[in-house]
Amino acid sequence: MYLLRVVLPDRPGSLGALATALGKAEADIAGLDVVEQRGDGSVVDDILVQLPPGKMADALVTACNSVEGAQVEFVRFYPSRGGLQRDLQAVEAMTADPSHAEGVLVQLAPNVFHADWAVLIDAPEEGPRLLDRSPAAPEEIGDVTTPWLPLTRPIRLPDPAEWAPSLAQSTTAAVTTAGDRVLILGRRGGPEFLDSELARLGHLVALARTIGAGA
């Protein structure tokens, strides 16, 4: 299974043309999310596709590029268990274990946001401390500093080379969960997190806080 993020002109027929092009490339579309509508008249779609054995991901890019106005932001391998109801599944999982809602979100956030890793840190003045991490996350955060704190909303973090050299190959986003705790989400090699993804991240963190408070 592969995940494509494609920018298309927001006009009738664009998505149909893309679906036709992918079909000609023998790609089977398993699902689609409209993740953002931009003010420039374009729309961002996440598309899950299955290729037959022996077909390379380059065929997907070639197919998309054949559609007028289409731009591929990324293509990456994606586990077949991924789905398009990830936000709801995360809420259900947090509700099922309310006393650990925050930790549940840390584990699920990479799948929810098509990212590679997530960490939860405590960031008091004396320096950050790792509280929780997803399986593929860095095991140590000794070089992490937090010059971007305090946060009032979810943000795209600046270049990690400025505050965490070990994460220099990742694009990152962060949101305060409670007190000095911060959830950091990372994608190795990009792309940048969209405004709509930041809004969803903030919403899920707020839900985790509410669910946990009621435990």
Structural summary, described in words:
The chain is an alpha+beta fold. It has two domains: about 1-75, Alpha-Beta Plaits (2-Layer Sandwich), CATH 3.30.70.260; about 85-215, Beta-Lactamase, CATH 3.30.450. The protein is about 30% helix and about 30% strand. The strands form two sheets. The protein has a five-stranded antiparallel beta sheet, covered by helices on one side. A four-stranded antiparallel beta sheet has the order 2-3-1-4, with helices on both faces. A hairpin with a 6-residue loop joins strand 5 (about 115-120) and strand 6 (about 130-135). Helix 3 (about 85-95) runs antiparallel to helix 4, helix 3 packs parallel to helix 5 and helix 4 runs antiparallel to helix 5 (about 195-215).
| Neighbour order of strands in the largest sheet | 6-5-9-8-7
Helix content percent band: 25-40%
CATH architecture of the largest domain: 2-Layer Sandwich
Radius of gyration: 18 Å
Strand content: 25-35%
| Total DSSP E strands | 9
CATH level-1 class of the largest domain:
Alpha Beta
Mean pLDDT: 89
- N- to C-terminal distance: 37 Å
Q: What is the overall silhouette? A: elongated
The count of domains is 2
**Number of contiguous helices:** 5
At the third CATH level, what is the topology name of the largest domain?
Beta-Lactamase
Low-confidence stretches: none
CATH superfamily heading of the largest domain: GAF domain
